[in-house]
Amino acid sequence: MIDRLIGKVVDKRPDHIVVQTGGMGYAVYVPIIAIGRIPMGEKTLLYTHLQVRDDAFTLYGFTREKDRELFHLLITVSGVGPKVAIGILSGYETESIVSFIRNEDVKSLMKAPGIGKKTAERILLELKDKLTGFEASEEFETEGVAIATSAQEEASDALMGLGYSASEAKSAVAEAEGDDVEAILKSALKKLSSNR
């Protein structure tokens, strides 16, 4: 098992980064909101999870150990695989997800990509008693406007992390469609690529 990876970030994509270490470049899938926080061209530490399947070895990475811990809990839920768990962590910080689960906020969980009502309810049911040691967000908000604004800010930060200027990022995000970070980011990237 690869527990952590320390190396230089040599490339950033919408859903993953490439970390170079020991003469090799590793594609590491990280939550979208973390991409903007990871410095390009600098040495970084990622806490990792390796998924081994017959057709692929996929490496997932997290800037904080508690993010990986929540990821591990999420993938124990029936119907939640690594891609869906990364999608949840792409839309919200760990502390917010913990708040949603503790407060049984199905609607906020359903805003994450790939999460329907049944899956959200299953996450609440199976994880509610397993979150000891996790901190919840002090600013627990369920208002759609507040969540949308936060998602737009996160998407804008991620775009700047990919090398776009602040004005390009803000303009693209303002015109983007979607409520969660992933949807806004995909829409914004389409607009940016069509303008170039």
From TrEMBL:
Keywords: ATP-binding, Cytoplasm, DNA damage, DNA recombination, DNA repair, DNA-binding, Helicase, Hydrolase, Nucleotide-binding. Residues 149-196 are annotated as: Domain III. GO terms for biological process: DNA recombination; DNA repair. It comes from the Bacteria. GO terms for cellular component: cytoplasm; Holliday junction helicase complex; Holliday junction resolvase complex. Residues 72-91, 107-126 form the Helix-hairpin-helix DNA-binding motif class domain. SMART domains: HhH1 (SM00278). It is found in: Cytoplasm. One of its GO terms (molecular function) is four-way junction DNA binding. Its main location: cytoplasm. It holds the Pfam family RuvA_N. InterPro entries: DNA_helicase_Holl-junc_RuvA_I (IPR013849), Hlx-hairpin-Hlx_DNA-bd_motif (IPR003583), NA-bd_OB-fold (IPR012340), RuvA (IPR000085), RuvA_2-like (IPR010994), RuvA_C (IPR011114), RuvA_C_sf (IPR036267). Has three domains with a flexible linker between the domains II and III and assumes an 'L' shape. Domain III is highly mobile and contacts RuvB. Homotetramer. Forms an RuvA(8)-RuvB(12)-Holliday junction (HJ) complex. HJ DNA is sandwiched between 2 RuvA tetramers; dsDNA enters through RuvA and exits via RuvB. An RuvB hexamer assembles on each DNA strand where it exits the tetramer. Each RuvB hexamer is contacted by two RuvA subunits (via domain III) on 2 adjacent RuvB subunits; this complex drives branch migration. In the full resolvosome a probable DNA-RuvA(4)-RuvB(12)-RuvC(2) complex forms which resolves the HJ. The RuvA-RuvB-RuvC complex processes Holliday junction (HJ) DNA during genetic recombination and DNA repair, while the RuvA-RuvB complex plays an important role in the rescue of blocked DNA replication forks via replication fork reversal (RFR). RuvA specifically binds to HJ cruciform DNA, conferring on it an open structure. The RuvB hexamer acts as an ATP-dependent pump, pulling dsDNA into and through the RuvAB complex. HJ branch migration allows RuvC to scan DNA until it finds its consensus sequence, where it cleaves and resolves the cruciform DNA. Belongs to the RuvA family. This is Holliday junction branch migration complex subunit RuvA.
